[in-house]
Amino acid sequence: MISRFTSYVAISLAASFIFAAGWFCLWSIGLHLAGGPVLAVLLFPFGLRLGLLLQSPLPYWPPLLLSESLLLYWLDSEIGLPAWPLIQVGSLLTLLPLLIARRQRVRNDWQQLLVLLATVTVAALLQSLLWHLAGEDGLTALLLTLTGGLTLTSTCMLIWHYLTRATWVPLGPALVDQPVDWRFRHLVWYLLLFVLSLGLQLGLPDSLVRFTPFCLAIPIMAMAWRYGWQGALLATLMNTVALMAGQAWHEHPLDLLLSLLAQSLTGLLLGAGIQRQRELNQALTRQLAHNRQLTERLLETEESIRKEVARELHDDIGQTITAIRTQAGIAQRLAPDNPGVGQSSALIDTLSLGIYDAVRGLLGRLRPRQLDDMSLEQAVRGLLRELELDRHGIVTRLEWQLTDERLSDAQRVTLFRVCQEGLNNVVKHANASSVRIRAHQQGERLQLLLEDDGCGLPEQAPQGYGLLGIRERVQALGGSLQLSCIRGTQLTLSLPCRKREDHHE
After folding, report:
1. What is residue 212's three-state secondary structure?
2. Cβ-Cβ contacts under 8 Å for 470 (sequence gap 6 or more)
3. Would the pLDDT of 122 be above 90?
4. Which residues contact 98 (CB under 8 A, 6 or more apart)?
5. What is the C-alpha separation between 490 and 481, in angstroms, rounded?
6. What is the C-alpha to C-alpha distance for residues 29 and 35, in angstroms, rounded to an integer?
7. How many CB atoms are closer than 10 A to CB 329?
8. CA 51, CA 80: separation in Å to the nearest integer?
9. Model pTM greater than 0.70?
10. Phi and psi at residue 44, in whole multiples of 5°?
């Protein structure tokens, strides 16, 4: 096994080599843009150092800082960098905002973008302040450090985010045999926006070159809207390449730095805003789904309580009323010659039957008794017989293709209530000659259609288990209820599929 120290040394050497190579290449690019070797150090190498230190663990900071020190010393010995000790002191001074930024608890990507922006700004201010105290041009140093810092730190964050979030698997036969997803549509978008950025930079006349940053905001906004903060930073990176390519035709170093700074700020702030909005939308979606699950669970609990109460009422009151009627009959037999006792016994028997009928009606409102003794299809057929639609001259047609195994208890009750309310409205208000009920599964949805050829519903729907209460129940289950009265009445119910839960009581 490789020791931890050996692993640290190997990783440090590799990171230092990559950092030194990138640092020197970026310094060479900045040499043509900043106008001097010292100022070139403050451009892209400054941003590269901030970006890597901000993303890498603390134990790897010393090798990276040592690599930069050796590069500065080597450049001073080759071409002369009289201010390289000042740059080195500034590098150490900018470690303070980096340490503060790493101690911040960042939970979201948009917060990380804002922390990155604040860190780069503070580091640039410290570097330019030190430059100003040394008698150099502090404003130029501030512009260079801000431009390079915002450009390179966001790029490092984008790359680091991809490297840490991507799933890396060993190369093997199973991986080689899989088709490669090039995401051609995404590549086309990238290329088109890059060409647009380059065309805006190179195609505008000299009198309109200063408006380039506003034109370059177009691809940033498009990429941010389509791909979030990653798209915004990627568009910023493409615009940076386009702007530096345009420098060969437009000799305006200051305008170039301002353009780079403006589009970097646009990318970071727009990316943070887009990401914040997306996270709020995702949180709202999760909360709505959670609330819907809670509501559905409440409905399940309500139906369970209704079922238990209905059962207790049926058993207890039924037995009590039977006992009362029995006692009334006994009293009548014990005093057959007493007219008052006979009338009282008959009245007690009549009142008992009235209470029993009232309780049966209450039980029907609490819980459809049919659902406990038969399937949902049988219960709906029993409802058709109970309402005596044939006696009203209404022809019925039932097409039931749902099985109870695919329905939860709350869904069974809801479907029965919809059929009950719809058929009651047909009998009372529709003046229809035919009614059709069709229940089936369509994909991941349960569909129920109840339609008639009558005159439609009145403006005010009945209360109780009316359409308003049923619609609220359906929405709580994640479904929808639509009512149409163009030709007759069409009541359409849609519910998501659920597995029926077996409750052991």
Report:
1. helix
2. 414, 417, 418, 421, 481
3. yes
4. 50, 53, 54, 119, 123
5. 10
6. 11
7. 14
8. 27
9. no
10. -75, -35
